[in-house]
UniProtKB/TrEMBL annotation:
Signal peptide: none annotated. This is Fenitrothion hydrolase. It comes from the Bacteria. Keywords: Membrane, Transmembrane, Transmembrane helix. The chain crosses the membrane at residues 25-45, 74-94, 106-125, 157-179, 185-204, 247-265, 291-313, 334-358, 378-403, 423-441.
Length: 443
């Protein structure tokens, strides 16, 4: 996306020139952090510490009363639907220009902005989802229950539809040749709304919990927040205790593989090596990018799954069940990579989208008084701070992932495998760390 001054605002990880340390030192330090973390856990963390039925403390009654009130739910439904109507307006009637705010709304506010919002406030998309609101409206009109559709949602599908939906979105953003043209964005968004409404009619709200790519995405990230539920009761938990409550469903590994692999490919496709490879041959760049995106997602899932299936087994577990059992440990890693990859993009282009939002039809209007705001480019002018933040986010995400995997391992694995059984998964996480930091320098 371009600024009013014609400056292209990229969202990549940044290059090696931005970093005040050598790539070798960063990778070695991160690997050491993972190994030391695992060693400390092996010595000091020998029994499970998290229990969904008892962990956390009950939220203050006043806060719980507000959050659980009907007025609170209606307020956020109205906010979400108002933003949806605005997005439809600029998508349908706005000009096909880079300054149309729909591009920033879709690629920045919606895709990237869901991460910090869900981290701080819980499952935001579930609260504001316009497709849930429309489904609720249809249910009120017909006198039916929005939680129940015509059929029961097949448990074997799990999160697989969400994984395919997420892949479709990252394909539009990263591979499709014209992702910033208005027509393709409108078509993708219309298809998303149509599929979600049909799914809601057939399977009720359970369809959104399991199959809506953005609700699944937001809810998974919200597992790293301090807000959780014990039954219907609002509780405050440590993020790791909350993370441990992530439901184990089919397709969960596919979801985290798409989120992780697509973020890695987004950085890799800007690297000098990939650009030279794509431009130096006779094969279509479009085909190569399709293959690259799919390969990164499949490789991420395969490396993680292999690290899990090589883990020692418990008496009541099959090897094929282990990847989904440990998939929650990838969530902090994904959040770390999203922070590293999209931080400056979210802040600077997100701010730019707020400026454009006041001029929905690109005719010089100033609906919300934001059109004259100055550009926010502080992060771009402080590369050392930005680079250190990125490296820290990657390393911290992996350390939290190791802790989450260790907690699950000592709960479900037999004692003879509780430590040695984790080593394959630890090696997989070290590979992710080294690969992620390599991309941080290669971009």
């Amino acid at each position: 996306m371009a600024s009013p001054d014609g400056i292209t605002l990229a969202h990549g990880l940044g290059g090696a020139k931005d970093l005040p340390i050598s790539p070798e030192l960063a990778i070695a330090g991160a690997t050491a952090a993972l190994v030391i973390s695992f060693t400390v856990l092996a010595i000091a963390w020998r029994t499970p510490r998290y229990d969904a039925a008892t962990s956390g403390r009950v939220a203050p009654p006043g806060l719980a009363a507000i959050v659980d009130s009907r007025a609170w739910r209606i307020t956020w439904r109205v906010v979400g639907f108002a933003i949806f109507l605005y997005a439809v307006m600029v998508a349908v009637f706005g000009k096909d220009l880079a300054i149309n705010p729909i591009l920033g709304i879709v690629y920045v506010w919606w895709w990237v902005g869901l991460v910090p919002l869900s981290l701080f406030f819980g499952p935001v998309w579930k609260a504001i989802s316009p497709v849930r609101t429309i489904n609720l409206g249809f249910a009120k009109i017909s006198g039916s229950d929005p939680d129940r559709g015509l059929f029961e949602y097949p448990e074997r599908l799990g999160n697989w539809p969400a994984a395919f939906g997420l892949f479709a979105f990252v394909w539009l953003e990263l591979v499709y040749p014209y992702p910033t043209e208005l027509g393709p964005v409108r078509l993708w968004a219309a298809a998303y709304v149509a599929v979600m409404l049909v799914g809601g009619a057939l399977f009720g709200n359970r369809f959104y919990e399991r199959a809506d790519p953005f609700e699944v995405y937001s809810t998974l990230v919200s597992r790293m927040s301090v807000w959780g539920r014990r039954g219907e009761q609002l509780v405050i938990r440590s993020p790791l205790a909350n993370l441990d409550t992530t439901p184990v469903r089919p397709g969960l590994v596919a979801v985290v593989a798409v989120l992780f692999g697509s973020t890695a490919f987004d950085s890799f496709q800007d690297s000098t090596r990939w650009v030279k490879f794509v431009q130096g041959g006779d094969t279509s760049p479009y085909l190569l990018n399709n293959i690259g995106l799919l390969a990164f997602c499949v490789a991420a899932g395969a490396v993680f799954a292999l690290g899990c299936v090589l883990t020692g087994l418990g008496d009541d577990l099959r090897r094929v069940e282990l990847p989904n059992q440990f998939a929650h440990s990838m969530i902090p890693i994904i959040v770390g990579y999203i922070v590293a990859h999209y931080l400056s993009y979210l802040v600077e282009v997100g701010w730019l989208t707020l400026i454009y939002a006041s001029d929905p039809f690109s005719n010089g209007s100033n609906w919300f008084g934001t059109a004259d705001l100055p550009l926010f480019t502080w992060l771009s002018y402080h590369p050392t701070f930005l680079a250190n933040t990125k490296v820290l986010a990657v390393v911290l995400g992996h350390v939290l992932g190791v802790i989450a995997a260790h907690e699950r391992a000592i709960r479900i694995l037999p004692k003879r495998h509780q430590l040695t059984g984790q080593l394959p998964l630890l090696f997989a996480m070290i590979a992710f760390t080294a690969g992620g930091l390599y991309l941080l320098f290669a971009a």
